[in-house]
């Protein structure tokens, strides 16, 4: 409970400082505010999908359904944050470029990322047997993550783009006003804490759902097949 209160206060303070006290970036002007949500959402997309991949591999090695719970929850949250990054990016694009969607290399990359992980969730939803679902989903997630760094970091740098330079420039340095840097860092830390909390919550829900299914469906099957008779 205390950690959740601290997390709420942290994000509130960081958000207030970002919106009210951080200076505006020349050229970007008021659209600078969007970036305090857009970049953390993009960061969490990569973090969550990476965590999904690691737990998918852990499931394939140990056949532990707890790893499958983590992989599925992280993929769901990764897709959620990916949608957040896409929507906030579209709002920024409308203000700067005059249209919500321009098929810029970064927009195109995130579009394919959305398709890949929507297909992952569709795959999970189409398989009833939990062992088979976990196995096929783990293989898909482990292979799919290969595309993530390629789409996020490589493709946008291969083509000319209207998108502003990333925070970490080509010299490996963060070149920005100290107050903006503090706000970005605070928002990244706060969003990461939010992901950890949401991940643990989703995993607990998945385990409760499995326990419910085993306690309700299994007895029903025994009765229907006559297995429950003395």
Please give a structural write-up.
With 230 residues, the chain is mainly α. It has helices at residues 2-21, 32-62, 65-97, 105-126, 130-144, 147-158, 178-224. Helix 4 runs antiparallel to helix 6. The termini are far apart.
Task: Itemize the secondary structure elements and their pairings.
Blueprint: H1 2-21, H2 32-62, H3 65-97, H4 105-126, H5 130-144, H6 147-158, H7 178-224
Helix pairs in contact: 1-7, 2-3, 2-5, 2-7, 3-4, 3-5, 3-7, 4-5, 4-6
Please tag this protein with its features.
mainly alpha; 78% helix; 230 residues
In helices, the fraction of residues equals over 70%
β-strand percent reads under 5%
In total, the number of strands is 0
Distance between the termini: 48 Å
Number of helical segments with 4 or more residues: 7
**Unreliable stretches:** none
* Rg from alpha-carbon coordinates: 21 Å
Task: Write down the overall geometry.
Answer: globular
Backbone structural class: mainly alpha
Mean residue pLDDT:
86
Order of helices and strands: HHHHHHH
Taking the sheet with the most strands, its summary is:
none
Quick overview:
This protein is mostly helical. It has 7 helices and no strands.
């Amino acid at each position: 409970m205390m950690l959740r209160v601290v997390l709420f206060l942290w994000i509130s303070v960081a958000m207030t400082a970002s919106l009210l006290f951080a200076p505006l970036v020349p050229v970007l002007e008021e659209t600078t505010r969007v970036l305090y949500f857009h970049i953390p959402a993009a960061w969490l997309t990569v973090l969550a999908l990476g965590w999904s991949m690691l737990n998918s591999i852990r499931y394939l090695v140990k056949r532990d359904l707890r790893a499958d719970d983590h992989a599925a929850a992280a993929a769901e949250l990764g897709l959620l944050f990916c949608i957040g990054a896409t929507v906030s990016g579209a709002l920024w694009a409308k203000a700067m470029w005059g249209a919500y969607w321009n098929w810029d290399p970064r927009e195109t990359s995130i579009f394919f990322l959305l398709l890949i992980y929507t297909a992952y969730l569709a795959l999970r939803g189409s398989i009833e047997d939990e062992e088979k679902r976990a196995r096929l989903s783990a293989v898909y997630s482990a292979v799919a993550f290969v595309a993530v760094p390629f789409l996020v970091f490589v493709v946008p740098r291969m083509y000319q783009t209207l998108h502003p330079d990333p925070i970490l420039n080509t010299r490996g340095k963060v070149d920005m006003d100290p107050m903006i840097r503090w706000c970005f860092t605070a928002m990244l830390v706060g969003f990461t804490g939010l992901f950890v909390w949401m991940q643990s919550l989703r995993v607990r829900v998945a385990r409760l759902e499995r326990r419910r299914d085993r306690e309700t469906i299994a007895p029903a099957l025994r009765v229907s097949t006559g297995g429950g008779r003395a």
